[in-house]
Amino acid sequence: MKRFSFPLDRVADFRRIQARIEEAKLEALYAQLRGFDEKEAILLQARAESESKVLSAPAVTGPELAALDRFRRFTGAERLRLQRQRAECRQKISAQMQVVTVKRRDVRLLEKLKERRLESWKADFARETDAQADEAYLAKWCGAGWQPAGRL
């Protein structure tokens, strides 16, 4: 019997590559989301330091308070922009997760099909091996002078 081969191996390899590509895209989106979080943390830290610096000074001038107010408004607007970007990124992540799920399902489908075909091949191989063993056993008896009943 010929050795086992799965004709869809190249297709399965291609689908694995596609799944890895989509997983890499998902990881990039997660990295982008972490980047937004880091930017917001840096922004909040800068705002807190500025407020602390200005408000802890012994004498605060009007222009310094005005600058602090403009910086507060800027950081507030920047936080809103980052929150919108974060929300968009989360939507992209959700959509990408669905794509990854489909690609992984496609890979698993071919892997299960290959497993079934391999089990079927193993069963056929075992049957063929048993049949050959039976034939060899009978040939041994026939070759040793044994005659089936009714042949004299």
Q: Helix share of residues?
A: over 70%
Residue windows where pLDDT falls under 50 for at least 5 positions = none
Whole-number count of domains: 1
- Tell me how many strands there are: 0
Task: Please compute the radius of gyration using only Cα atoms.
Answer: 36 Å
Query: So what's the oligomer here?
Result: single chain
3D shape: rod-shaped
Mean pLDDT: 91
What is the count of helical runs?
Answer: 2
Largest sheet: none
- The helix/strand class is mainly alpha
Strand content: under 5%
Termini distance?
36 Å
What are the secondary-structure elements, in order, as H or E? HH
Write up what this structure looks like:
The protein has one domain (9-115). The protein is built from two helices and no strands. It is mainly α. The mean pLDDT is 91.
